[in-house]
Amino acid sequence: MLQQVIDRRLAGKNKSIGNRERFLKRYKEQIREAVKRAVDGRGIRDLERGEEVRIPKKDLSEPVFHHGQGGQRDMVHPGNKDYVTGDRIKRPEGGQGQGSGKGQASDQGEGEDDFTFALTKEEFMQVFFEDLALPHLIRTQIAEVPEYKTHRAGYATDGTPNNLAVVRSMRGALGRRIALGGESRRELHRLEARVAELKRHHGEDAAAREEIAEAEAQIALLKARLGLIPFLDPIDLRFRSRVKTPVPSSKAVMFCLMDVSGSMDEQRKELSKRFFILLYLFLTRHYEKIDLVFIRHHTQAQEVTEEEFFHARETGGTVVSSALELMDKVIRERYPPGEWNIYGAQASDGDNWHHDSGRCRELLTDKLLPACRYFAYVQVAEEEQNLWEEYSKLAETHKQFAMRKAVEPSQIYPVFRDLFKKEGATT
User: Fold this and answer.
1) Can you identify the CATH homologous superfamily of domain 252-419?
2) Could you give the CA distance from residue 374 to residue 343 in angstroms, rounded to a whole number?
3) What is d(CA 208, CA 202) in angstroms, rounded to the nearest whole number?
4) pLDDT tens, residue by residue, 175-192
5) Are 147 and 245 contacting, i.e. CB atoms less than 8 angstroms apart?
6) The whole model's pTM is what?
7) If DSSP codes are grouped into helix, strand and coil, which group holds residue 258?
8) Of the candidates 360, 355, 351, 356, which has an alpha carbon nearest to the alpha carbon of residue 391?
9) Pairwise CA distance, residues 75 & 67, whole Å
10) Interatomic CA distance for residues 349 and 258, integer angstroms
């Protein structure tokens, strides 16, 4: 009999979302390494597309069932024209099958087949940014326009049909019918029992027949009265009630400070942009409500748009404190620390006017770090100048201040993950 199998899965033919998710979870480490290799080989602006990754086949071992040695078993091989029952098949020489590749098999070297599969854009970005979070993010006080969350709050006597609590309504209807008809049912049962007794013992007596007739009339009246009690009355209906309550809103702002002075050549600027593009993608992907403030500086600092931050080409001398002063001004004017989680990220080559580096440390110590949940500094040059020395003093005394170096494009992603890893997570 011919059988047909029709695949009605929503995922489509030959696809299984559940199996794919289990696969990604099982080989998490291998996929993460493959994603890191992919990042090194593509432009930073191409991060939001998918990727084809390769995993060595030796890492994909699976438990299998197989026959043990010995015993007797019958097998049917399709297309057999040379052997009949009882023939002994010669074992291949060497004890192993021949390779299926082109040319002759070799007994030298070691090879492996790679398992290749494609990560979607969503899967790639999930692996790319997993285990990352803004450090020390806390709930702030309720905003002027608070967020609301609905939750169950018992039952109400009115509501929409989709919120009708059927079981609760039927329970109420049953209770009402019992309460309204309880006395009548007791009287009905008494009269029915009396009629049965009279018919059994005094069926021929005239007085008994008269009493039976009166009882049956009362029984009919009681049944009619009980029949008037509705099975379900509007008063029985109960609807699931939901109320809205304000919840604290995690309002956060990230300040992005980038040095565009003359000492920042194209390579260093590109490293800084790579870091901030990663930060921008991470924040906009993981946090729906977060403000981004972009500040570029040379001798003067200026708040700019996202487009100007990544593409403007002006340059000049170096006064790093101008950016920190502007950040402090914007915080005081627009982002009260009691209502906002404030973060800062700064990228520079460390070159600064000598007398200004001490001023930078004072601004961070006295004004910015007390207001910030976290402040990260990335130096895109190997040489440790006076700004690095001043910031090193801050790192020793302030746990919400972190500093790293990234002098090559391949170092940007590891540094970024180290700076923004979740609390308690390992990279």
Assistant:
1) von Willebrand factor, type A domain (3.40.50.410)
2) 5
3) 6
4) 888 888 888 888 888 888
5) no
6) 0.53
7) strand
8) 360
9) 12
10) 10
